[in-house]
Queue: 2 jobs
Job 1
Amino acid sequence: MLIESFQNEKVKHVTKLLTDNRFRKKSNVFVVEGQQENERAQQFGFESVEFFICENIFQKKLPTGKVHLVSDKVYEKIAYRGSSEGIIGVYKTKEADLSSFKPKEDATIIIVEGVEKPGNLGAILRSCEAFGVDALIVSDGKTDFYNPNVIRSSVGCLFGMDVFQAENQETLEFLQKNNFNIYTTIMDETSEDLYKRDFKQKSAVLFGTEHSGLSDFWIGKGKNTLIPMSGSIDSLNLSNAVAITCYETLKQKKG
């Protein structure tokens, strides 16, 4: 049956999942829009609940599972990106415990403290996945990993990454227990260039928020590291700084 009414209960439900963070978390499900993003969610073992398909847009074989066919107008209403792609999937969330993560001997971890903007987190995830970072930890974070903006801006890279949320103390204890070299992006007289650090060994690089940097909790907890620049400004956009760091770690490991 083709769903053509905005008042359909299933349409109302998926719209609320998209727009209401609390409702989404309480429901333990999240929404994925787009062909590539849905393919990645399934590729990495996320369990689908249902799909909303606009056949006039989605020209591929229908996915396996519960499928609701919707009209163009209904799809345009519920789709975050308007009329693009033609597929919206609803999936069960996965809970990841940092204590269960077993890092490799040459693992690289990126840690971002207090990141708030979903678009920034998505861009960071994309860089981490692209350059082979082993895990991303959001320390004292305020952003929902399953926010539609995170999924969209990461192009589904969230699904193939080890991603954890933890408090600062828990994060520090994990790093110390697993013998990580800790590099903090705090600028002072002890800071050394990023390119002089050894990322061939087990390493964790920490970044703070754009407006205030790392909190006082991390002072003295690691080796201060900076990205050398030649311009008149002394800092970069958070996601750009993470991307440069991820590339440097990969370059060193590739030799």
Note: Helices lie at 9-19, 21-27, 35-43, 72-78, 118-130, 148-153, 168-177, 238-254.
Job 2
Amino acid sequence: MTSIGLQAQTIDTYFLHFPISKYDTIVYKRIIETLDKNNLIHVEDYYPNGQIQMDAYYSNFDKNVKEELQCNYGTNTKQGRYKEWAKNGQLIYDANYKNGLRDGLAVSWYENGIKESEKKWNNGQLNGTCKYWNEKGDLEYDLTFKNGINQSPETVSYQYITYLPTSYASNALKEYPLLIFLHGGSARGTDTLDLYDAGPFDQIYRGRNFPFIIVAPQCPKNIRWSTENWFENFYSDLIKEYRIDTNKVYLTGESLGGSGTWYIATKYSDKFTAIAPMSGFTRHMDYISENIENLKKMPIWAFHGELDNVVPVEETDYLINRLNDINSQVKYTRKKSVGHWIHWLVYPENELYDWFMSYDKRNNK
């Protein structure tokens, strides 16, 4: 594939060993073309079978890195057209970037060729009409965003799963701390079994016991924790259904759920005693930064891996720098040599849960 109307300075062929899990690696054939015009770098990645996987333009590029479409990892900065294909040859993503941020119309498709979404972006935030279809081609959402916020959110109820401490049934008078876990993007949908794939419920599945009531709501496919008004109904249901100590309510989440933790805590700061967001976007909407004062008295422990190639670590850096000026109860674990999977280092250990339990609103007034 050649670039029409552009004069190439150099063309380099490189083989990128890209780990998709600890058990498997894809070797992409990568063709890197340095262009005279606008000092852009044209990059094409190919699957081992010869099928093109990515066609993109960058203003800065590290040939050893393969980041996700929404991420600017390290020195990589997307600039212009960006396209991805599935292994079966189906185009699955087509968007435009400006200074590393999505800008303009972005379209995605399922691997069966049915359109999945059309989104309008402006400087990395959703702005304008956004539509989402299911794999049968049925339109599920037709929304209008401004600065990343849905302008007509519906009030809905999300399904959720619950863990009760072993003493809950026998101790009928005791109120228990509540830990709310917001899952990442891959657990969205309608199958609650997916909620056991990570976080506290992964630990519960392995037989671990906790002193909390732990609840994990499930976000519908395609949308984010900030798209609909779900928290009011969810929290009201929990208070009615379970014996909850409202002075000890904690919120945590990873990736999509990390972003959701920032948003929900900012919007409903009076409900929470302490929060622990991990690896989440923070600048995809103005709402969080514009309302950061709501978190000035909130104990916060944030986590992010420096090598995250899905959500850049700068997303958490940005809010932590803002919070350090107004909040003396902020901890930040910024792990070297760790990627987007930092939550696998945190949730299996005791330290975060002990930290949560050390905070009680009755002692922090």
Note: Residues 1-8 have pLDDT under 50 and may be disordered.
